[in-house]
Amino acid sequence: MLPPVPVPVSVPGSVAVRPGGFRGSAPAGGLHRARLGNGLRILVAADHSAPVVSVAVVYDVGNRSEPEGREGFAHLFEHMMFQGSENVPKLAHAKLVNAAGGSFNGVTWPDHTSYYQVLPSGGLELALYLEADRMRAPRLTEENLANQVAVVGQEIRRKVVDNPYGGLPHPHLQAVMFDDFANAHDGWGAADRLATVTVAECEAFFAEYYSPANALLVVCGDATPALVEDLAERHFGAIPASPAPPTVRGCGPRLPEDRHRDHPHPAAVLRAMAAGWRLPDPAPRDGAYPAALLLAEVLANGTDSVLQERLVHRDAVAQQLSMRTGLGGAPFECRDPDVLSLVMFLHPGADPRSALDAGYEELAHLAHRGPAPESLARRAATWATSWLRALDPLGLRVQRLGAFELLHGDAELVWDLPVRIRAIGPAEVADAAAALAAQPRRWVTVTPGAAEPATGAGRAGRLDREGVGA
User: Fold this and answer.
1) What are the two backbone dihedrals, phi and then psi, of residue 80, each rounded to the nearest 5 degrees?
2) How far from 363 is each of 26, 294, 312, 360, 431, CA to CA, in Å?
3) Where is this region: Disordered (predicted)?
4) Residue 250 lies in a domain
5) 224 and 143 in one domain?
């Protein structure tokens, strides 16, 4: 039986459920922003269509912020934040949320780490209390650290080391795309290195990055802005203020030469490859980033896309292929630099270099002639529909709003992006294709064979620098 936890049992100011709400568009009342005296930012997206609320605390820290020699530290620390806090015993967070009918999780990305839960709306104060308590004082102990190093080590082995294709596109692709540590290193890390992390390092990481001024509280669903502000002040307001650390930005000049790295793996059955291209800076609203996202749909996604028709159906080179943003998990979920990645699983005997050459040929063709307007409009409509449908679950919606607001100061873009995508014309897609076609070839392969040892800076593999230019 858990020790008693001082969790409020009632939420003042009950919220009436009324019709209307999200329904695929921005909240009727817009987004509400506020800031506490200690620097904690607040974002509220009310949606009273169902008695459900989602709460996320998003911290401006991720894989790019972890120190050299401590690859995978940000993810390990995310695990440590679930090991109890000053007034919440170990495992109590999970039991309390589950008992209230809710769910929870945490996710680490290159530039941010998000902790979120979805509960019946009466559980709003419970979620805020739990998040505030671990923002104030997580239980960073030797026992908890040893336990989570073991858990993370098992996760690395299951998802990456023992999975022949677990490194596609990342963490393998970063090492051929970038030279600077922040962007090139393996964000999973290696279990043997993580085993040397100390509690003192965890305490220093927490003090630097887990302050109110470096965090954003996001609430979506059946709650009013006034109620959220009142409860946030009650639970977060007394947490001491401290300066936010500098943001990790940029990666120096673009590297001119072609690069390839091969990763043999004894469990690989098919040869697979991943290629990457630098995307435009996602920050400017009127920038070229959305056109590159739509280009990926034209080029590779869907059975009638350009590369599907050529490499899968006509030439029978690839068994399957797809393109997506390669670092942040979804569009706009990391700062510049971001990567567009193409992943292909090849038929036996197929040459990955020839398959990549075909990709560059099709990019050149699209740059010259652009896509057909009717085909582009159909793909844009499909993309927009899928994007809005994915926002319906509150757990994903709260994460995307948090990422867009924290990284770009523009949560409204979550709803405006489908409109922006549908307004893109053939000329913008042709320009995006030309920009990608001009970039050097950066690609990795996974081939059947004996595995090479992993390193903290990047999974092992032979790195070939193949001259300058595309």
Assistant:
1) -65, -30
2) 35, 13, 17, 5, 10
3) 242-262, 448-470
4) no
5) yes
* 3-class DSSP string for 8-48: CCCCCCCCCCCCCCCCCCCCCCCCEEEECCCCCEEEEEECC
Looking at the structure, do residues 230 and 266 belong to the same domain, yes or no? no
Question: Does the CA dihedral 356-361-366-368 come out positive or negative?
Answer: positive
Residue type, 315: D
Does a structural domain hold residue 406? yes
In angstroms, the CA 252 to CA 336 distance is: 11
The domain in which residue 377 lies consists of 257-453
Number of domains comprising the chain: 2
Backbone angles phi, psi at 74, to 5 degrees: -60, -40
Same domain, 186 and 309: no
DSSP-assigned beta bridge partners for residue 56: 116, 218
Residue type, 448: P
End-to-end CA distance of the chain: 64
The per-residue pLDDT string of the chain (470 residues; one tens digit each, 9 = 90 and over) reads: 333 344 443 333 333 333 334 445 677 678 999 999 999 999 999 999 999 999 999 999 999 999 999 999 999 999 999 999 999 999 999 999 999 999 999 999 999 999 999 999 999 999 999 999 999 999 999 999 999 999 999 999 999 999 999 999 989 999 999 999 999 999 999 999 999 999 999 999 999 999 999 999 999 999 999 999 999 999 999 999 999 998 877 777 778 899 999 999 999 999 999 999 999 999 998 999 999 999 999 999 888 899 999 999 999 999 999 999 877 778 999 999 999 999 999 999 999 999 999 999 999 999 999 999 999 999 999 999 999 999 999 999 999 999 999 999 999 999 999 999 999 999 999 999 999 999 999 999 999 987 765 544 455 554 455 533 32
**Cis ω on the peptide bond leading into residue 337 (within 30° of 0)?**
yes
Angle at 399 between CA 394 and CA 401, to 5 degrees: 95
Helices H, strands E: what count in the chain? 16, 12
On whether residue 141 sits in a domain, the answer given is yes
Same domain, 264 and 374: yes
Q: Give per-residue burial for 364-388: e unless 16+ CB within 10 Å, then b.
A: bebbeebbeeebbeebbeebbeebb
pTM assigned to the model? 0.91
Residue 286 phi/psi, 5-degree rounding, is -95, 20
